[in-house]
Amino acid sequence: MNTTSFPSAADEILRRAVTADAPVPGVVAMVTDRVGNLYEGAAGVRRVDADTAITPDDIFALFSTTKAVTATAVLQLVEQGRVDLDVPARTYLPQIGASKVIDGFTASGAPRLREPKREVTTRMLLTHTGGFGYDFFNSTYARLAEELGQPSVITASKAALTTPLLFDPGERWEYGTNLDWCGQLVEAVTGERLGEVFATRIFEPLGIEDMTFELDDRRRARLVGMHARNTDGSLTPMDFELPSPPQVHMGGHGLYGTVGDYMRFIRMWLNDGEGEHGRVLSAKTVQMAVQNHLGDLKVTPLTGVIPSLSNDAEFFPGLSKSWSLPFMINDEQAPTGRPAGALGWAGLANLFYWIDRSNGYGGFWATQILPFGDPTSFGQYLEFESALYTSIRQPSAAVRY
Prior knowledge:
The chain is α+β, with helices and mostly antiparallel strands. It has ten helices and 16 strands. It folds into two domains: 5-68 and 193-392, 3-Layer(aba) Sandwich (Beta-lactamase), CATH 3.40.710.10; 77-187, no CATH class. Strand 9 and strand 10 form a beta hairpin. Helix 2 (67-79) packs across helix 5 (178-190) and helix 2 (67-79) packs across helix 6 (194-206).
């Protein structure tokens, strides 16, 4: 890897992101190998209405990058023989057994519900084939919210999870609240809140200090502000914060944390489950988990139905994509240079990461902008990832920055 050229290329990409015609307010980006961070960069400000520079130690709302952490907690229970991925999830979480499939609406606007043809399993929840969706990606859920007052997942409430199934479990991939249900399953099996499980069984062996479902004053002082992208490309700061403390530790999106702490999580996956201070998963479990668990189904594009929350978005359009237990898999080499079989995903406020176990690299790009699929943030992230693979093809002595 040419570690002389990559840091300067990465710095320039971050600079372009914060000076573009439609700039990001601030960005933190990092790359790691199996040993430690190769690059740590930051550019811009925490909020556009203040002059505080963003730093690598700042706290982000991590949104759906939370999902892989929740999947890890489930996999620990599988290792311990406490969860079977293929028995009905109601075995551990009875309330999920009450979920019905919605087959449209009656003339009066009431949901038309029926029993599902099969039961939801934990494997289905992990692979987003359980039947649950999000209102910002699904028009049926959006109608439930608009006309019937179905609470948004950002309320972090139990009521937010009581949505019908969009289809019979196992029939297709649809992104949604499946991992929030997994978090509830972990709590039911362990008898602990999800944040407590994370703290003792994942964060402690990884050396993670700042990830939390519940912001305190110390972390809030380093919180990066949320921003809305306007139609003219400008940014409006938002006083956005998930409930603290939340009624539910939302395993699908509820964590706050630093990019540096997430890099410790990525390194665990690069190192077959081993953390800086202990093992999180066995190598056998990791190797099982990162395989394709979707079968012949494929990951499909995300269609935004609430413009303030998401644009239409897709990783690597035209390329086949599958799902492991915690991550998306690109089945073919990506235009960035990411090899076939690599792992990755994203968070709603335009956070993106990838994990390349074959080459031993991973990276994370963090902004706080809505809607998802922001052209500047997403585009510059892809440039960032591409720069890493360009440097890999230019060998030189390894140096850390």
